[in-house]
Design a protein that fits this description.
single chain; 495 residues
Length: 495
């Protein structure tokens, strides 16, 4: 019904520049190659995330980080993300750089990711080359490594919002959906490659002997992949500077824009004004994405227990590096990487299948199935712990990961499109209560930090009370099954 109305004004106004600080004319359809280039940022980001997940705990243990500081390392970045991500999203909405609104933030955060990776993977080697005194060396090594971990997490968490907002700004409504699927697809591929390389024993290979340690090998791959992916991403689709549209377009021109201009960043008020019982996007993401390793976020009193019981085959990371217990620990880390690799690969495959499933089950069905499979998978792992069954069930986790990278953002795009249609029925284009897509994307992603804060602050106490780390996966299963009810009953889906 709305499509016929939208076509009436296309010929007259499709080439208009931005109609105000939050609007733009309907962009042309983007070639598949451009969307793939745009999605490579997610490939590079998830590759580096996988390297961090596989190596940060061994790195922190090897430099002698006190157990009392683990909670600080893993909670600082989520707290900052939860508090500041909406601020950064709003700032990008109003950025007037000649290079566009989102790309300056993406470039800055990408450089911060690279710097953080360099610090936590090479901090020990760099400090050892500069400082000889053992006590000073220990202090500086721990400080540099912690700084690298926090800096990387901070930048990697923040960069997701600008990347999604960049996609929404420069693509038509159909291309937004295609782009989100490509994002999820390449996210899975990037994670799989990162975990795959982390599962290789580089110390016995030529590259490992040349670069020194497996940490340096992984930094080499991380820096190479991240740099290439972000260079391609930033050159994928041009952005129009914000000030050009604000200067050159009058309110009358804005009224001539096509009613179904799906990329116009509509000026709408608070989400509470939406009818039919719509809940806020912030609530949609509450309690989602349990992808961070629980053993990395516990309180100091349970860290040793978690490392022994969750990561590997009862190895001891505190033993001498040539001991059987430590070699067992390292073997467990490698097997864990294989499990995470399976997770990432299944996420990519499911991301590809989503496009075929949407016409049959809809976004609501995809959302529900993602939570259901995750809840069942974690429940079975907790009830029937076994190495091989756990690796097999990692495929179900990939379904959840793919769902979280696509469905919530698809809903945000549809909410914006609905608001744009409503604005076309108004006389004038009111400036009050304006909000751009950047702040909405940030509101979604900062809920991930809230979940990490709750995990880091509460699971340690819960493990102490129960006396077993099995409660971690059981609790994840319960929350995911509650999420099934939430997405079925309280989320509003736009046709």
């Amino acid at each position: 019904m709305g499509g016929s109305r939208g076509q009436a004004g296309v010929g007259a106004s499709a080439s208009l520049p931005e109609d105000g600080p939050f609007g733009s004319a309907e962009p042309s359809r983007r070639p598949r190659g451009r969307l793939i280039m745009h999605s490579l940022a997610m490939f590079g980001r998830e590759f580096c995330y996988a390297v961090e997940a596989a190596y940060v705990t061994p790195v922190l243990l090897s430099v002698g980080l006190p157990k009392s500081l683990y909670s600080t390392v893993w909670l600082l970045s989520p707290v900052l993300g939860f508090l500041l991500q909406p601020v950064v999203g709003s700032a990008s909405d109003h950025c007037r750089s000649r290079w566009g609104r989102r790309r300056p933030y993406i470039l800055t955060l990408g450089v911060m990711m690279l710097l953080g990776t360099a610090l936590y993977l090479n901090g020990d080697a760099a400090v050892s080359a500069l400082i000889a005194d053992p006590k000073k060396k220990l202090v500086w090594t721990i400080s540099v490594t912690m700084m690298g971990v926090v800096l990387f997490d901070f930048a990697a968490d923040f960069i997701d919002g600008p990347i999604k907002a960049y996609l929404f700004d420069v693509c038509s409504h159909q291309d937004k959906e295609r782009g989100l699927h490509y994002h999820a697809l390449f996210t899975g591929f990037g994670g799989a490659l990162g975990y795959l390389l982390g599962a290789i024993d580089w110390t016995h290979l030529e590259l490992g002997r040349v670069l020194g340690t497996e940490f340096q090998v992984m930094f080499f791959f991380s820096a190479l992949v991240l740099t290439l992916c972000f260079m391609v991403h930033l050159c994928s689709i041009p952005e129009a500077p914000l000030r050009d549209g604000a200067k050159n377009t009058s309110p009358q021109q804005g009224l001539q824009a096509p009613p179904l201009s799906s990329d116009r960043m509509s000026k709408y008020g608070s989400i509470e004004k939406v009818k039919n019982g719509c809940v806020t996007p912030e609530l949609v993401m509450l309690g989602e994405k349990h992808k961070n390793l629980p053993e990395q976020t516990q309180r100091a009193m349970t860290m040793k227990l978690l490392l022994k019981a969750l990561i590997v085959y009862h190895g001891n990371p505190y033993s001498a590096h040539n001991s059987t217990e430590f070699l067992t620990y390292e073997r467990g880390v490698e097997v864990g990487c294989w499990g995470l690799c399976i997770n990432s690969m299944s996420s990519s495959v499911y991301s590809y299948l989503q496009k075929a499933l949407v016409p049959y089950v809809g976004l609501k069905g995809l959302y529900f199935v993602g939570y259901l499979l995750f809840g069942l998978g974690t429940g079975f792992i907790g009830l029937f712990p076994n190495i091989y069954s756990t690796l097999a069930l990692c495929t179900l986790f990939g379904v959840m990961s793919s769902t979280l990278y696509t469905v919530p953002f698809n809903l945000i795009a549809k909410y914006h499109r609905e608001e744009e249609e409503k604005q076309q029925t108004l006389e004038g284009n009111p400036d009050g209560n304006a909000r751009g897509k950047g702040v909405d994307c940030a509101a979604l992603t900062c809920m991930v930090q809230l979940a990490q804060i709750l995990v880091g602050g509460g699971l340690g106490l819960l493990v102490n009370m129960v006396g077993s780390v099995t409660v971690v996966v059981i609790m994840a299963s319960m929350i995911a099954l509650i999420g099934c009810c939430f997405v079925a009953l309280f989320v509003r889906y736009v046709d």
